[in-house]
From TrEMBL:
It comes from Tagetes erecta. This is gibberellin 2beta-dioxygenase. It catalyses: gibberellin A1 + 2-oxoglutarate + O2 = gibberellin A8 + succinate + CO2. GO terms for molecular function: gibberellin 2-beta-dioxygenase activity; metal ion binding. Keywords: Dioxygenase, Iron, Metal-binding, Oxidoreductase.
Amino acid sequence: MIECNHNPPLIHDYTNLLNQSRDRVDVKRYHEPGLEECELPLVDLSGLLSENDEERASCASEICKASSEWGFFQIFNHGIKVDLLRKMRKEQAKLFKAPFERKTASGLLDNSYRWGNRTATCPKQLSWCEAFHVPLSKICDDTCYGEFNSLREVMQEYASAMQELAKSIARVLVTNMGAQRGAWEDKCNASTCFMRLNRYPPCPVSPEVFGLVPHTDSDFLTILHQDEHVGGLQLMKDSKWVAVKPNPDALVVNIGDLFQAWSNDVYKSVEHKVTVNQEVERHSIAYFLCPSYESFIGCYDEEKSVYKRFTFGEYRSQIQQDVKTFGHKVGLPRFLVST
C-alpha cells in the first residue's frame, strides 16, 4: 500500500505491536477462511405506517423476532431519502481525504477523530480504521466544521432522520415487552446520541488484523449505513462467525447491550467485527441510540431481572476500566445479579 498523507500511521502501529507481542497466532484464529455468507432478516418498514392493523402487527413481529433470534436485521422502505444517504457518503469521503495532520490537530467535529486503538498491547487488539465519533450535541456547532462547511447541513439532516428512525424501531421493541413508552423515551434525545463516521483503509497485512475488533455495542440500538459493495461486516450466529452480504437498498440495525439488559436477555446484543480488504477502502456510518450518562438502565420487570440496576455512565466507566486492565471489553456479565 502506498502511504498517502491522509492515511493514519496504522502500519507503524501494527509493526510496533507485532514486535512487542507474541500473540500473532491468536490474531489469525479469528480470521476463518471461506466464511458462510448470510442474508440478514429483511424487514419492510413501511408496514409500521400501514393503516391495516395486521400489516403493522406483522412488521412489528418481524422486528422483534429478528432482535431476539439474530440481534441484527436489515430494513428497507425506512423513510431515509436515498439522496441524503448519498450526500452524506460523499461528504464523509471528502472529510477523510483531508491530510492526517489536519484531522488530528484541527479540532474537527469536536476533536472526535481517532484511529487504530491507542490502548492496544498486541495485534489482535488493533482496529485498522479511522473514525470521527461525534456527539450529536456538537453537530450544530459551526466551529466544529472548519472548511468543511458543506458537511454541516448534511450531517444535521442525516442525524435528525436517523434519530427518528431509531426511536420508531425502539418503540416497537418496548411495546412488544408490554412496557410503557414515555419514561423510556425520555432517556434518549438528540443530546445523548452519537454518530460514528468510519473509514477502513486498504490493509497490506490483511487478513492478520481487524477493521474493527470483535465487540458488542454499548447502546440501545445501532443503525448502520454500510458500504453497498465492499463487504466486511461479520457477526456471531449459532457460535460461529458468518459474513453479512451487503445489500445496497437496506440499512442494518443491531441491538446493543442496553436493550439486552432492559429486556432481560429477550433481545440479543451480538458480537460482531469488521474485516479489511487489501485492495480497496470501505466506508460506513453508524448511528448510536444512547441515553444520558445519568440514566438508570434497569429491566422493564425489575423483580425478574438477571442484571443489577446501573447507569449508562457506570457501564461506560466499567468498560473503560476493563479495556485498560484486560485489553478488551467484558460488558454485561459484569452486571449480572449473581456476580
